[in-house]
Amino acid sequence: MNLRQLRYVVATADHGTMTSAAQALYVAQPALSRAVRELERELGVELFARSGRGVVLTADGEQVVRHARVALSAVEAIEGLSAGGTGGRGADLRIATTLSLEPELTGRLIPRFARDQPAVRVRVVRCPGAGHAAAALRQGRADLALTDLPVPGDLVAHPLDQREVVLVSPPGLKLREPVPTSALNGMRLILPGRGTAPRAEIDMMLERVGASPVAAVESEERGTWLGCVRAGMGSLLWYRNQLDDTDGLTVRSFMPPLTRLVGIVHAHRQLPPAARDFLAFAKEGPRSVHHP
Fold first, then answer.
1. pLDDT in tens, 75-121
2. Is 162-259 in the same CATH topology as 3-80?
3. What pTM, to 2 d.p., does this model score?
4. What distances in angstroms separate CA 282 from CA 43, 198, 226, 271, one per listed residue?
5. In terms of Cα–Cα distance, which of 203, 204, 207 is closest to 218?
6. Average pLDDT in the 1-26 region?
7. How far apart are CA 181 and CA 283, in angstroms?
8. Which residue intervals define the domain HTH lysR-type in the entry (predicted)?
9. Span between the terminal Cα atoms of the chain, in Å
10. Is 249 exposed, middle or buried (0-12, 13-18, 19+ CB in 10 A)?
11. Which pLDDT value is given to residue 262?
């Protein structure tokens, strides 16, 4: 039995379905279901019974959830004892991040945090992808990670920003609206230059939906992208809240929606004061995450 399992059981009881509980905790639903089943096997009791499309607590489940709430409250109180002691002063803080999110971490978050906590020494652990960032947390090589959500169930996620990805096209391009993600297959796209952080983001999105477009233009100059679309050279896949001037162009959403959720992640263990300070700072800051 571990705290992660108790958190998942309580969340499932509160939300009525494992899918809703997983969404509330920003973890993958199969990981949550697996953890609950493992706890049931360990205890030798059934915690939930099916009810329509959701689940309800059994008599044993009600007792487990009641004790779990007490245990989790006690853990939070114990962890809180270290929160205000040193305030992170003079401490070391290791933050893992992916290639595409490193500019956000080093260009905006860390400089702002350093103004409030100048004595904290922040070290960035650079990771090729989200899986490597998760490994750095599990192995104790990082205290926190700025990465994409959801994450595996053995990690704790704190969402910071959700970005909608849209398709910007020349007005004459005939497409269903909203655009099915399958329409990206073979589509001519204006893409960021290879090896850049924006290109890593786009490649990750395309891989996630299994799409294989055609690279009509590859450019590191972000200011030229919409001009290429206006010239009819191709369409652009980018974030709605980062588009400046789309006059004369067609902006379409995707179905299912194509979004990217970014957050701060850490392992299920007590955080050092500096990490707690950084997490609180990041969660209280501006909700929109933009590139510098």
1. 777 765 654 444 444 578 999 998 778 888 988 899 899 888 888 88
2. no
3. 0.60
4. 38, 22, 31, 15
5. 203
6. 85
7. 31
8. 1-58
9. 44
10. middle
11. 92
- Backbone phi and psi for residue 232, each to the nearest 5 degrees, phi listed first: 75, 20
Domain 92-159+262-284: give its CATH architecture. 3-Layer(aba) Sandwich (3.40)
The whole-angstrom separation of Cα 32 and Cα 153 is 6
Structure tokens at 258: 């194509």
Tens of pLDDT along 170-213?
988 989 889 999 999 999 999 999 888 788 889 988 998 999 99
CATH architecture, domain defined by 3-80: Orthogonal Bundle (1.10)
Return the pLDDT at 287: 43
DSSP string, 201-269: HHHHHHHHHT---EEEEEES-GGGHHHHHHTTS-EEEEEGGG----TTSEEE-EES--EEEEEEEEESS
CB 231 within 8 A of CB 125: no
pLDDT confidence band for 39 (50 / 70 / 90) = very high
The closest of 82, 76, 73 to 276, measured between CA atoms, is 82
Domain extents in the chain: 3-80, 92-159+262-284, 162-259
Q: What pLDDT was estimated at residue 90?
A: 54
Categorise residue 195: left if φ over 0, alpha if ψ from -120 to 50, beta otherwise: left
Measure Cα distances from 63 to 10, 58, 216 in Å. 11, 9, 61
Pairwise CA distance, residues 16 & 25, whole Å: 14
* Tokens representing residue 99 in the block: 């290639």
What distance in Å separates the CA atoms of residue 263 and residue 159, rounded to the nearest whole number?
A: 4
Q: What is the pLDDT of residue 185?
A: 96
What does the pLDDT read at residue 205? 87
CATH architecture assigned to 162-259: 3-Layer(aba) Sandwich (3.40)
